[in-house]
């Protein structure tokens, strides 16, 4: 979901590094927040650009002229700053499954929700120490040159496809996909039955091409190296619009999210919470969804979006399922070991 630059917390690196924030020393401080600015650690790239145009700049113009400066969201640096009582950041953005680990390590402030209308937020978006800010989808996509008409309608149809398919070479989201393919309903997905998930993957092991990065997974589909497979919607949205032979849908999507939090000891905590509240407003959520194809977590934002935009946005409904970040915080090591052993045969 975020930039793939090295040393930053991104969707692809987050779960692989759960619990590893204490394994490295922090970099020397680069930015320290001043009263006239906020410092936010982000993943950079297109996500950072979207934040600036749809959230940071409008907030600055309407809420006191405060600049938002961004820096890299390195977990080891956060840990060192908090432990040394020398926190330079006011906010941090990262995958929700990473921020839940930071919260358990005491690196995040409890969120003051007084400025947020919680009744407008989708179920599961509010946590004690962080808030989900968007919805992206790990979903089914297919090459339209290889498959004429509609692609596989659900994960079971993908697993039963007579052709090559692609899956992410990680347990995160892939075990969920395998269970959905085996008939587990979204409502009954957690706790994951890892034995059943691996048995489901056994059924397709001879026709799977595994991808390691989001860019690789999308390219497999666009090039027709596979007929259909799993990918993230942000990776195939623009190629489809540009005419690439790829299509997708959100049925049985596994929803993953960016989240925002306030580091423990943040120098400008109150202003940071004000910016967070603005980022969750219907206006900001709708503007962000128009800039980058991630669904809003404020239910009022939908009324501000036209039908064409809404059709390309993931959403929480009866067929989709939110990634259970607490499950992965508890079981990441076990699931990763078992998945990797399965890969080795």
Q: Can you walk through the features of this model?
A:
Residues 1-9 and 11-34 have low confidence and may be disordered. The protein is 36% helix and 17% strand. The chain contains 12 helices and 11 strands. The strands form 2 sheets. The chain has a 6-stranded mixed β-sheet with strand order 7-6-8-5-9-11, with helices on both faces. The protein has a 5-stranded mixed β-sheet with strand order 2-1-3-10-4. The protein folds into 2 domains: 15-134 and 257-314, 3-Layer(aba) Sandwich (D-Maltodextrin-Binding Protein, domain 2), CATH 3.40.190.10; 137-255 and 325-344, Periplasmic binding protein-like II (D-Maltodextrin-Binding Protein, domain 2). Helix 1 packs antiparallel against helix 10 and helix 5 (174-181) crosses helix 6. It has 345 residues and is an alpha/beta fold. The longest helix has 20 residues, at 325-344.
Number of helices: 12
Measured on Cα atoms, how large is the radius of gyration? 20 Å
CATH class of the largest domain: Alpha Beta
CATH architecture of the largest domain: 3-Layer(aba) Sandwich
Widest sheet, order of strands:
7-6-8-5-9-11
Distance between the termini: 31 Å
List unreliable stretches of 5+ residues: 1-9, 11-34
Tell me the CATH superfamily of the largest domain. Periplasmic binding protein-like II
* Outline type: globular
Major sheet summary line: 6 strands, mixed
List the domain count as a whole number. 2
Q: Structural class, judged by helices and strands?
A: alpha/beta
Helix content: 25-40%
Per CATH, what is the topology of the largest domain? D-Maltodextrin-Binding Protein, domain 2
Order of helices and strands: EHEHEHEEHEHHEHEHEEHHHEH
- Mean pLDDT equals 91
DSSP strand tally: 11
Strand percentage lies at 15-25%
